[in-house]
Structures are given as structure tokens and as C-alpha cells.
Specification:
Elements lengths: L6 H12 L9 H13 L4 E3 L5 E7 L6 E6 L4 E8 L2 E7 L11 E7 L2 E17 L4 E9 L8 E4 L4 E4 L2 E4 L2 H18 L5 E8 L7 H9 L7 E9 L10 E3 L10 H16 L4 E3 L9 H5 L5 E8 L15 E4 H20 L6 H4 L4 H9 L2
Parallel strand pairs: 3-12, 3-13, 13-16, 14-15
Antiparallel strand pairs: 1-2, 2-12, 4-5, 4-9, 5-8, 6-7, 6-9, 7-8, 10-11, 11-17, 14-16
Length: 370
């Protein structure tokens, strides 16, 4: 029967990964945190030519392999010029310009770590840069000397747990990076056959670049079912606390039924265990499965309903934490484990054998009543 991971252990993994600051092109600290978690599990990892982390867990013979894909960046700021304690910071990713009508507090980081320090953004200048999904840049004034090449993130806590609510600086997509790690931990203790790859991608927020490179260069086996994991905008049809969402498509693309069917088998197993799930078309944005499906890959996707997507709330003109539910996150882990086992066994939903072929007596009836 499907099982949820332990709540406290789950929260600990999320906290260790989500505490790392990140930005497009500045994902090194998150990747190191994920690498450390996988090393603790005894799972080997490697970096591709683009600095993206790959891992794999497998047991026995699997009819269908999976490739779980989550991105390690989140909208943030790239310091493009600096002189003393002042410089310019370019927005990277989907922050809206109305949030820069007032000063914005941030923390400044180096790729290799070190002590962060505070700074303030102001003097918003609109200067669209399509290649980096940037609407403009700001002046940055810092507590210490700045240098070009540093990055800055919104100055809010990386994680606050309030009951089932997880308030994160970057639920999108660090919470789902944690889901992959937790799924690998669960699969190591699962005796059923499975074959699951993982790719922790970079620069999703600026153009799905990491996922596109994986697809273009076939950096995972071509026969894999690609599963994108996201913290996607909560909708009326995808409610927080009602379970992980099986995502048949995003705002631009429809994904593959042949991939999703294994998630649907997983949903049946979770339902039998009393674990809620949802299925909904999520039109709040584009996910990494779009990078694969347009190139002919078999794809599907899951998502956690994300309140305050990209740190923006309808009733606030300030940056706020993203909010996902711990129960949804634990359900996502259980769903992936069951889907991986279903794919390995090439299983169909329980209702499919009954409708695979039209019964002969119905054929006869319809021939006789033309």
C-alpha cells in the first residue's frame, strides 16, 4: 500500500535544501545541498557540461524508466556592475515591476558561499532583456562592498513551517527538488523494480534553458518518461491541501497520455490508502515538460499548488513567501514512488481492461440496429 514519508524527516530535507540561496545562473549552493542529501543516501551523482546535477536509482528490470526533472533556480537578481557599496542589479525571472515601486530589501551572496549581507534595491529602470526574462534593473546599495557577479535574493526567511503550511522564499522549485530526494530515499527502501533518473536543472526561470539543453543533447535516455515537478500557481481547480496535482499540460502545451497513465495508476493506489490527489490543467505558467514534449519526448508532470507564486500576492505590493502544503508535498513523494513501480511493471489503470475492447455482443447489437 502507498505510504507517506515521515513528516519531520520530510520537513528536515526541505529545510536543508530550501535554505540555500539561488538565482538563475547562480544555483551552485542549492546543487551542493542536493548533492549532499543524495550522498547521504549512498546515491552517486554527476554534473553535466552545463553544471546540472544528475542521479539515478534502479532495481531489477523496468519496462519504463522515469526522468524526474526539477529546477534549482528562482527569480532573483544578478549584480551587473558595482562601485564600492553601490551598483546595478538586473532582475532575473518573472518578478513584476509594480513590486519595485518602493525599496526592496535583499541579501547579497557569492556563488561559493561566504557570509551574506544586506542591501536595498531602488531606482527601478525598465530595460527588457528577453534572453534573461528580465523586465529591468535597479540600483543596489549594500552594507558591504559589492562586486559584479554576485547575486541577491529577496530578504525573507527561507522556510517557516506553520502547521501544514510551508512558507518558503523559493518553493518554486526547491520544494520539488526536495521531493525528488525524498522519492529516491523511499525507492531505496522499496523492493519493487524501478528505474528512475533525476535531473536538477538550471536557469528555468530565464527560459527553460537547462531543461532545453537536456532535451536537445539527450542527457537522459531517450526512452525515459520525463516528469516535470513544479510548485505552480494555485487555482480554483488546484487547491492547496487537496493533494499533489497530476498536470496534463501547462499554458502552452499538452503532455503525453502514455506518460501520465503511470501517474494515474499511482493515484489509484494513493486513493486506496486514503491519500488525496488532484488532476488539473495548470495554466499559471510553463513547466519543463514543455521543453521535452515539443521535441518528441514522452512527458507528464506533477505540481504542488503554490500560493503567492513568485513571491507575489494579489492583496500586497510587497514580496511575500510562497506557500505550499506539507501534506501535498508528502503525497507527491508517495505518488512518484507508486508511479515508478507502475511504470516498471507496465501497469494500466484498473478500469482499462474493461474498456480496452468493445464487447462482441455490443458489436452484434449495433450491426443489427443500423
Amino acid at each position: 500500500m502507498a505510504r507517506l514519508p515521515d513528516a519531520q524527516s520530510t520537513l528536515a530535507v526541505v529545510e536543508r535544501i530550501a535554505s540555500a540561496p539561488t538565482a538563475p545562473y547562480h544555483e551552485r549552493q542549492v546543487i551542493r545541498a542536493i548533492e549532499s542529501e543524495l550522498r547521504t543516501l549512498g546515491i552517486a551523482t554527476n554534473l553535466d557540461a552545463y553544471g546540472q546535477l544528475h542521479a539515478r536509482t534502479h532495481r531489477g528490470n523496468a519496462a519504463h524508466a522515469f526522468a524526474l526533472v526539477a529546477h534549482t533556480d528562482h527569480p532573483a537578481f544578478d549584480i551587473t556592475s558595482a562601485r564600492g557599496r553601490e551598483g546595478r542589479a538586473r532582475v532575473l525571472g518573472g518578478f513584476y515591476e509594480q513590486l519595485f515601486a518602493r525599496e526592496v530589501r535583499v541579501t547579497v551572496h557569492d556563488d561559493d558561499g561566504g557570509d551574506p549581507f544586506g542591501a536595498v534595491l531602488d531606482d527601478w529602470t525598465r530595460a527588457p532583456d528577453v534572453d534573461h526574462n528580465s523586465l529591468g534593473n535597479c540600483r543596489i546599495r549594500a552594507d558591504r562592498e559589492l562586486r559584479a557577479g554576485q547575486f541577491a535574493v529577496i530578504d525573507i526567511p527561507s522556510l517557516e513551517a506553520r502547521g501544514d503550511e510551508l512558507r518558503l522564499r523559493a518553493a518554486d522549485d526547491l520544494a520539488l527538488c526536495a521531493v525528488i530526494v525524498l522519492a529516491f530515499a523511499a525507492l531505496k527502501d522499496d523492493g519493487r523494480p524501478h528505474d528512475v533518473h533525476a535531473v536538477f536543472t538550471r536557469a528555468e526561470e530565464t527560459g527553460l534553458y537547462g531543461a532545453r539543453l537536456v532535451a536537445e543533447d539527450a542527457l537522459v535516455p531517450r526512452e525515459c518518461v520525463v516528469v516535470s515537478l513544479e510548485a505552480s500557481r494555485a487555482l480554483a481547480t488546484a487547491r492547496p491541501g487537496a493533494g499533489v496535482v497530476v498536470r496534463p499540460g501547462d499554458i502552452y502545451n499538452t503532455f503525453s497520455n502514455d506518460g501520465e497513465k503511470f501517474l494515474r495508476v499511482g493515484r489509484e493506489r494513493l486513493a486506496a490508502a486514503g491519500i488525496p490527489t488532484q488532476r488539473a490543467l495548470l495554466t499559471g505558467g510553463t513547466c519543463e515538460s514543455s521543453a521535452f514534449v515539443r521535441m518528441g519526448w514522452t512527458t507528464t508532470a506533477i505540481a504542488l499548488p503554490n500560493v503567492n507564486y513568485h513571491n507575489m500576492a494579489d492583496d500586497s505590493d510587497e514580496f511575500v513567501p510562497e506557500i505550499v502544503r506539507l501534506s501535498d508535498l508528502r503525497g507527491a513523494v508517495a505518488l512518484l514512488v507508486e508511479a515508478a513501480a507502475a511504470g516498471a511493471a507496465d501497469e494500466d489503470e484498473s478500469w482499462w481492461p474493461d474498456v480496452r475492447r468493445v464487447p462482441e455482443h455490443i458489436r452484434t447489437l449495433m450491426r443489427g440496429r443500423q
